[in-house]
Amino acid sequence: MSANRHYRWTSWGLITACLAFAVAAEDESKPTAIISAQETVSERRERVDIEVQEILNTTLDDEDYGETKRCIWSNRYDKIEMIDDRRVIFYGGRKRAWLNHWKHGDHCAGKLYSHYRIGVEQRSRQVCEHDRIFFIDMNMGMRRVGPKCVLGKFEPITREQADYIKDIAGVK
Questions:
Q1: Tens digits of per-residue pLDDT, 49-74?
Q2: Does the pLDDT value for residue 112 go beyond 90?
Q3: Which of 54, 132, 134, 154 is most buried (most C-beta within 10 Å)?
Q4: Residue span of the structural domain in which 106 resides
Q5: Number of domains in the chain
Q6: Measured on CA atoms in the order 50, 54, 56, 57, is the torsion positive or negative?
Q7: H or E element that contains 69
Q8: Is the dihedral angle over the CA atoms 133, 151, 125, 164 positive or is it negative?
Q9: Does some domain include residue 2?
């Protein structure tokens, strides 16, 4: 490597490092979830459960408020996102979202990979408590894989609450 090329790469590396430190210093002012390196899986689960419950106990604005539902219409949601091995969020239009815990607190899905899609086995035009979610491996010809998870009741949450739940659960 020529000396000129070496100096260019070194300069580029120093500039990149300075920018990274500047961004990190700027981000320190933002609140973030601090996770201890020694936190066990069960401690993490318990912490996430407590924080999710705190979010659900937060009073919503009148237009956002809704009671827990047994069912939601299939045309009211357009996306399902896995949060952890016990919860999913159904996203709907107009900033609507519903948090769903597996029935009976089951630990169902385990570790999923990003190439899995989520499907719903439903008995009507609504997705209801006791319907099942299944997983589709897109790399294996849309083959169903993994367990079927039984849905619980649908708890209305705001998109902001959904984003916060994803943050504390470590979902990207």
A1: 777 777 666 655 545 556 889 999 99
A2: no
A3: 154
A4: 61-169
A5: 1
A6: positive
A7: none
A8: negative
A9: no
